[in-house]
Every structure is written in C-alpha cells, then in structure tokens.
Amino acid sequence: MKLFAIDLKKLYFALFLISLSLFVSCSGCGSNSSSVIPLKGISLNRKYIKMNLGSQITLVAEVEPVNAPHGHIIWSSSDKSAATVDEKGTVVALGSGRAVITAKTSEGGKVAKCTVQVHVPVERIRLNRAILSLKMGESAPLVKYLFPRDASDKRVTWTSDSELIAAVSPHGTVTAISPGKTFISVKTEDGNKIAKCRVIVKRRSDSRE
Which domain range does residue 94 map to? Predict the structure, then answer.
C-alpha cells in the first residue's frame, strides 16, 4: 500500500511536469497575431502645393506607426488635365486648374490627400483696338485678350491717362467726356503686362476724322 502511494505521487508529479511543459509551449501560441502592429493612418509631407505649369514635385507618404504593415501606396489624381502623379508620388503640373492627389494604402485602405493648384502665368495681353475715335458722350467697349488663353489669373485693371477726356469702366467700356486725346491702359495682376489704346474724343459737331 505504501509502494502504491509512492507511485501515485510520481504519477502526479509527472502529470504536473507535462502540464507545465504544455503551458510554456503554448504561452506563445497567439504571439504571432498579437505582435502584428495595426495601421493607424497615413500622411503626406504636403497638404497644399501651388505649382507653375510644367514643374514637378515628389510627395512623401508616411504610415503610422512606421513599421505597421500597409502593403503598397496607391497614388491617384482627381484631375489629370491639371496634374498627374506616378507610382512614386511624383506630381507633374500639366494645365491650369486644381487637382487633389490621393495616397491610399493597399492594406487597410488608409487615405491622405494633397491639393495641387497649377498656375499658368500670363505671358502677354492685347486689345481689340489700337485707336478708338469717339464723339463726346459716346461709349464703346474695349476687349482684352490674355495669352495663353488658359492663364490662371485673368484679373486686370483699367485706367485712363486723363479721365477729363475719356473714362473707362472696370470692364473696359470707354466713355468720351471732352475733346482731346488720351490713352486707355489695361494691366494684368499677374506679371503686370500692359496693353494700350489711343482714344481720340471729338466734339459732336466735328465731322472730321
């Protein structure tokens, strides 16, 4: 009976060792899943860029945390006529307008965006008339032409060298005030390009050209 008790103790001890061994070996069973770092988000080094026509810049995408699995970055442009982007994040300005560049992780679907404004500078301006002849009280419009036609900033300022002779409205309409000669000018906000029209104002009774 005593021998049986000793063997029973040995059996319990052996079972304890086996259980302990199984516990230790299985304690890391879920470590693979728990060690995966979840992807929190993605960001770009720029949120807004103003680019000149034909220029290019490379955006840099960073995931958070930096060692989180994210697959690869998928780049896209909302308006390829304004700006394109390649698989490396290089943006090329192609035309006047605005495009939103998006970077998206292939795993997790995290998204970051950058707005790109493409600026096409004004190269020159001209008017539809070089000389305008009016009689007192008459009005006539001058028409401006900007080049290139897709220039981004189309704002201009109209001025008269002598408003006592001829006045001009903010939209280019010239009104003859009194006899004489003066110049009407239009200047671009972008680049300060200037075009002029010579205005000759005559009396109503004056029929001479």
Answer: 37-119
pLDDT at 110 over 70: yes
The C-alpha atoms of residue 83 and residue 86 are separated, in whole angstroms, by 10
- Among the listed residues 89, 99, 98, the one whose alpha carbon sits nearest the alpha carbon of residue 62: 89
Q: ∠68-74-78 over CA atoms, to 5°?
A: 135
> For residue range 183-199, what is the model confidence (pLDDT) as tens digits?
999 999 999 999 999 99
- Structure pTM? 0.69
Residue 35 confidence (pLDDT): 76
Enter the tokens of residue 170: 């903010």
Kindly state whether residues 131 and 114 are assigned to the same domain. no
CATH of the domain at 158: 2.60.40.1080
